[in-house]
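U., I forgot to send this yesterday:
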Amino acid sequence: MLGLSGYLIGVAGIGFLTVWVFLSLSMALGKGYAALLIGLGLTLLGAGVLALFWRWSKPAPVDVAQSRPAAPQADMDDAPSLIAFTAAFVLARYLTGEKRD
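Result:
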């Protein structure tokens, strides 16, 4: 909840800064040029953020020669279920007469 509140406050702050920039530029250049400059600036900012996202989101190359799959580890939490399954399997084979001597 606190993170969401911080995000919304930040978005509101960016909105107020955008309005301030628009009012300042519209007094100096006019409303049309102010809107154009703010639009171009926000478009460039968005493109820069997307470029950073694409750069950081690419997975690192994996060296196949050095990467080997890890051997499965038996957890101690699975031990009772493994023992029960093995016992049931052996008992079923014994009761059906498929036991090898």
